[in-house]
Amino acid sequence: MLPYLIGALLVILLSILQTNLLSLIAIAGVRPDLVLIFTVYLANRNGGMVGQSAGFIGGLTQDIFSVAPLGFYTLTKTVVGLIYGSTRDNVYLDAFLAPFLLVLTATLLKGVMFLLIGALFGVSDPSGPVLSTRFLIETGYNALLAPVVFGILGRFRGLELDWRARSF
Amino acid sequence: MDLKGYFRRNQTLVTFVLLVTFSVLSLMSGGSAGLRESGLSTIGLIQRSTSAVGAFFAGAFESVRNRRDLRSEIGRLQERTRELELQQENIRALQIEAEQLRATLGYAETLEFEHVSARVIGRDPENIFPTLMINRGRRNGLERNMPVIAVQDGRQSLVGRLVEVGQYSSKVLPIYDVDAYVAAVHQESRYQGLISGVGSTHEPVTLHHIPRDAYSEIEKGDAIVTSGMRSIYPPDIAIGTVTSVEASDIELNLDIRVDPVVEFERLEFVYVVLQEGR
Asked: What is the C-alpha separation between B148 and A149, in angstroms, rounded?
């Protein structure tokens, strides 16, 4: 139980850090999405169940801190967590390329989800920010940061939450 | 049918359906204000702490940068001289900080409104929805839709309004949001319109609904202020200056771009207006 609690607290903490501390490492005012990177990592290591749970908690915390409608980030990150859970046992995590590509595609998927949710639920049109240079910068930033974050997270064996038998 | 066995076998899928259902219902219902405010009140406390840590690191980075410059200048000096210069540097940093605080206090005293001063402790976790988080909430007498202003470089100007208020922290919707719609007026001609942005601090905001007839009266550099008409914002607070005026052949209204007075990226302190007049 403790590893799950630590994982949940960690994803909440990352969501909070994303609102303030990450401004220190912003490029052209664009901050990386650490919650997304963390969700993809957990999903890849532990499967869809852990991935979607991390995505849900991280997204919900982000919704609380944002003016986005409640559920906007929650739904996005939950879906990303589930989908990237399917990479477990299918994508071997090397030092650079796999984390880079996983997070690159996850960020693009996030953008598509924003557009879909925006269109389906009449959320204040997010197409402007998504179809912009800022989103491209974020995509590249996340992808380049992923190998570093994955490398750091890989040192914490406690994040292997072992849902092997029960997940996809 | 063994329902329990089915759930156990499809645990991930069942959980996913539950989580998605929660998200979709939240989106459809517009979200529970109670849940958001409770979350804001509890998790907001942690955010205040991490913001303080952030301020510490920002100060530390700045100190390291200053020290590196200093070291190149005084490399040839003795250890004692180096210590003295470092002390001098610390004193200078304290003086600058004291001047900033004095200026902030001075500006606060010049405000015409009853207000609560607040520090910006966070921004939107993603780069999609513009949000500012401040370290004041219901406990400080704040309420939803209260106007938020700032003083930068000696100028009092509009930041936005409160959209959610927790116990200890609140969310500000800045004027560059696509849904901001601030009632504004061209200061000289008194033509009235609505200001909104595109959600980015790097793009100017737009003054909508100004008729084409006003084309000859509005020029680059003109001031745009709040109108106060049927609005939550007090009148005559600076919003920005006109950067371009375009008249399309097919549009009845002008397309007026306005550069906000506030530099949102370096905004540290704001003032929440409680009520007009002291």
From this structure: 37
| Residue A18 to chain B, least CA–CA distance (Å) | 5
At B107 the pLDDT is: 61
Angle at B200 between CA B195 and CA B202, to 5 degrees: 100
> What is the longest distance spanned by two Cα atoms in chain B?
86
* DSSP letters for B226-272: E--TTSSSPTT-EEEEEEEEE--SS-SB-EEEEEESS-GGG--EEEE
The predicted structure's pLDDT at residue A147? 96
Vertex B114: Cα angle to B273 and B268 (nearest 5): 50
Q: Are B118 and B166 in contact (CB under 8 A)?
A: no
Query: Which residues touch B65 (CB under 8 Å, ≥6 apart)?
Result: none
pLDDT score of B58 more than 70: no
Q: Which residue has the tokens 């220190």?
A: A24
For residue B131, count CB atoms less than 10 angstroms from its CB and return exposed for 0-12, middle for 13-18, buried for 19 or more: buried
Nearest to A3 by CA among A60, A62, A58, A46: A46
Query: Does B43 sit within 8 Å of A47, measured CB to CB?
Result: no
Q: Give the residue, B98 or A54, on which the prediction is more confident.
A: A54
Cα dihedral angle (A104, A107, A113, A116), rounded to 10 degrees?
-80
Mean pLDDT of the residues in chain A: 86
The pLDDT value given to residue A104: 97
Answer yes or no: do A71 and B24 touch at CB < 8 A: yes
Which secondary structure element, helix H or strand E, spans residue B276, and what is its range?
strand B269-276
Tell me the residue type at A121: F
Choose which CATH entry (3.30.1330.40, 2.40.10.340, 3.30.1240.10, 2.60.40.1090) describes domain B33-73+111-278.
2.40.10.340
Domains of chain A, first to last: 2-159 (1.10.1760.20)
Contacts of A66 in chain B (CB under 8 A): 124-126, 129, 131, 171
In percent, the amount of chain B with pLDDT more than 90 equals 27
Which chain B residue is nearest to residue A118, measuring alpha carbons?
B27
Confidence class for position A166, pLDDT limits 50, 70, 90 = very low
Name the percent of chain A lying above pLDDT 70. 90
